[in-house]
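Reopening this ticket.

The earlier resolution said the output was attached, but the attachment link was broken on my side. Pasting everything inline this time so it's all in one place.
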Amino acid sequence: SVFGIAVCIIAQAASAVVLSKHALAFLPALPGSAPARSVHLMCSYWSFMFAFAHAGLQVKSVVRRIGRTAPASRALLWSARIVVAAVSAFGAASFVQIGLPAYLTGQAQFAAGDPNVVFACARWASVAVLVAAAFHCLRKALESFHEPGDSNHLSPDSP
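Inline output:
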C-alpha cells in the first residue's frame, strides 16, 4: 500500500508539471496534456484507495494500543463491528453510485462534483471505511493461516 501511494504521488507530480500552465509558467509547454489529465485523475483515486487500504492494515496495532489503555467490553467491540458493517454497506453502494470503478480504470475523463457537499463527504467517508475494513479483514484472514502455534509458521528466529 505504501509503494502504491508513492507511485501515485510521483505520477501525480509528473502529470501536474505537464498540466500546469500557471504555477509553472516559466517552463516550456509540454505535450501530452490529455494523457496527463487522465493519469492525474486516476492516480488521485488510486491514492485514496491505497491510503485507506494502508489504514485498514494498521487497524490491528491501533486497536491493540487502545485495548491496553482501556480494555473494551465485548458489547462495545460488537457495537463497533456492527457500525463498521453498516457504514461499509453504505460504502459499497456509494462505491458504485460515485462511479469509482470508472475512475480507477481510467474510463472517466472528468471528475464531477456532488452539489450536496455533506452527503458527498459521507459517501467518500463510507467508501474509506469500506476499503479499510476490507483490508483489515483480509489481513486477519491471512494471519489466521499462520497462527503462532502453527507448525507451518516460520518465525524470524527459526532457521
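Reporter confirms the inline version is readable. Residues 74 and 80 are 10 Å apart (CA to CA). Confidence is low (pLDDT under 50) at residues 153-159.
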